[in-house]
Amino acid sequence: MQFIDQAKIEVKAGSGGDGMVSFRREKYVPAGGPSGGNGGRGGSVVLASVENLQTLLDFRYLRIFKAEDGKKGGIKNMTGASGNHLRVEVPCGTVIYDAESDEILGDLTYSGQELCIAKGGKGGLGNSHFLSNNNRAPERALPGLPGEERMIRLELKLLAEVGIIGLPNAGKSTLISALSAARPKVADYPFTTLVPNLGVVRKPSGDGTVFADIPGLIEGAHQGTGLGHDFLRHIERTRLLLHLVDVTQPDPVAAYQTIQAELQAYGRGLAERPQILALNKTDALPADSSLPQELADQLRLLSDDPIFVISAVAGIGLEPMLQAIWRQLELAAPVDLPQMPLENHLADQATDDAEKQTQEDAAASMLELASEPTGAGLE
Is the pTM of this model over 0.85? Predict the structure, then answer.
């Protein structure tokens, strides 16, 4: 499945139905008066987060979403049918931006959240609302109001507990495949991973923890160099970072400092996130090599984070590292996520209709008062 984490779409709410101009035509009811009904309200466009989606791929092929228009008012003061709301499903972790102002409109983090992104237009008033003492047979009605239209930008931020970071070819994909059932592409050249990979790692208690492997970072990633800039946002919501350092590269300490500098430059609290350092690919060194211990001693001068010597491909040192990860997750503070209420964000239909009726009655009363004679003409 192709991984798409950004999309730009157009949403159009339905327009309200037009009001009706009609009169009572009943036997034995002379001068029956106006009986035109109001138009129905247009449908709204609602974004809903669901668990069974992991990408914004669907929005690459379908970019315009339009809700149903309200129906025209009928005779005998019958209100037209309201348009059906359009429910658009997005993955959990989707942030919605206004495409023009770049304002954040919502953040659907948990399954079941819904956000009304474009509200339907109100239905027009029928001619019965224009009845007054001076005009007993009004022949006018109001058209329905247009629904809201806007361009929005969707941005997906993966929801994972642990983010695996490091330079290209540090062994991140090999590690996540060794810890979980994920099977990302693994090869002996840089930038093998082009999209984030998720894997579920089981705790001793049986619960699953989501690990995210993002494409390798290089110097200047926070400015868009390489692939890291596009995918750094996927670790913004992780509670713990697992930093892999390849011990076989020329200067592992400089590689560590490069990643730390990129996290600091990117901001959004990534540099302050708890980390665990893992010196990887020790299987490629001689059995009596002291290099891993020397690197660990040098890194302890730069960081207080726990350091482990591992080999992802050989499975060496993985269990102690996992135990440290579980302990850190218990101590790590949860990342602040937007707390949107789990509701439709649309007015209840009965409340909506009552509000609409109140507004219409007030408009009709004002029109009637304005049309009545004043002053000396009254007895």
Answer: no
